[in-house]
Every structure is written in C-alpha cells, then in structure tokens.
Design goal:
41% of the residues lie in helices and 22% in strands. The protein has one domain: Pyruvate-ferredoxin oxidoreductase, PFOR, domain III (Pyruvate-ferredoxin Oxidoreductase, domain 3, 3-Layer(aba) Sandwich), CATH 3.40.920.10. It contains eight helices and six strands, in the order βαβββαβααβαααα. Helix 1 packs across helix 6, helix 5 packs across helix 6 and helix 5 crosses helix 8. By secondary structure, it is α/β, with parallel strands linked by helices. The protein is globular, with a radius of gyration of 16 Å. Strands 2-3-1-4-5-6 form a six-stranded mixed β-sheet, sandwiched between helices.
C-alpha cells in the first residue's frame, strides 16, 4: 500500500481522537501498518485537538507541512487553520457547521464566513468534500456522533483503502454499546454524503 497520511482536526469534545483510534485499528485489522499520534492543545477549554493516522511504510508519527494526503476537519475554522499540512493533491473533508471559539461568543472576536473559508480551502487543494456534519449526527439520533459522520465521509471518499464493512466491524467492537446504533447510522450518513 502507498503511504497515506491522514490528519484529523477538531475542537475539544468533538471526538476526533476516537475517530483516529478507530481508523488506526481498522488499518491494523486489514494488515496495513499504522502509526497514530495526537496533540491535545487546550482541548478541555474548547481548544484545538489535532491527531493523525499514518498508514503504510512509515516510521514517524509526524505529518509535516504539505505532507497530508487527507485532512479531516470537524470544525471549518480549524480546517482552515490546519490547511498548511496539505498540498495541491490533498483531499480535504470538512464539516461546514461552526463551533465558534469563546472569544467570539463574548464579542471579542469575529468568526469568518464559512463560504469564504471554503473558498480559501478550495484554492489550496484539488478536492474538497464538505458536509453539514452536525445535522447528520442529529439525524442519526446522537448529536455527539459527529466523529462517526466524519469517519464515514473519510471511508466514503475512498482515500484510505479501508472498506465500510471493515470500519463498521471496528466501530461495533470498539465503541460503547449504548451508542452503537446511532454511531453506525451516523457513519452511514457520512459515507453516503461523501459518495
């Protein structure tokens, strides 16, 4: 398998570390060597959380500037902030629904237009998949299943060579049973949105 470098970025509490872990498990279950890494930042205060899964013949967990094959952004502004990891051939999968930072909430900052951010992202990379991930999570019956929506979109894009069935098997064995039905539904909604 060709080396694939997938970067996930979110705001603390959106579940990107679980999504990263599940993708790493699915890669290993399919005989694909994988390295998983994470950077928490100020996650507990609603700050950025960045993680990565590197698949194939890799030895370092670091994705340097311009090296990401895929960027999965759970929050549009964080997607834009992490765009430096991408190159022209990178795929960006981004949620279009903002989770504005605290400074915006108290009137000390202005959140940029999502359309303007999407335009900037589209100028940098050749392929963008954008979706209303929070709405899809709500449709699945669990507002906290955004991570499964985004994971479904990644698998649906075909960018990582892991089948939907294989990913669902990992979700079924590695997530809480109380959320299994909504997680699988959210995954399927993301899968369909990306296709």
């Amino acid at each position: 398998m060709d080396t694939k470098r997938c970067v996930f970025v979110a705001v603390g509490g959106q579940g990107n570390l679980l999504a990263t872990n599940l993708l790493g498990q699915a890669a290993l279950a399919n005989g694909i060597p994988a390295v998983v890494s994470e950077i928490h930042g100020m996650a507990q205060r609603g700050g950025v959380v960045e993680s990565a899964v590197l698949m194939g013949n890799v030895t370092s967990p670091i994705v340097s500037t311009g090296e990401a094959d895929v960027l999965v952004g759970f929050e549009p502004l964080e997607t834009l902030r992490t765009l430096g990891k991408c190159n022209r051939e990178s795929l960006v999968i981004t949620n279009l629904q903002p989770l504005p930072p605290f400074t915006v909430s108290i009137g000390q900052g202005v959140y940029p237009s999502v359309d303007e951010m999407l335009e900037l992202i589209s100028k940098k990379v050749s392929k963008v998949i954008s979706l209303r991930g929070n709405d899809l999570a709500e449709e699945a019956g669990n507002a906290l299943s955004l991570n499964m929506v985004m994971l479904g979109a990644l698998i649906g894009s075909g960018a990582v060579g892991i089948s939907a069935d294989s990913m669902k098997e990992v979700i079924s064995t590695s997530t809480k049973k109380a959320f299994l039905e909504s997680n699988l539904k959210a995954f399927d909604l993301g899968l369909d949105a990306a296709r």
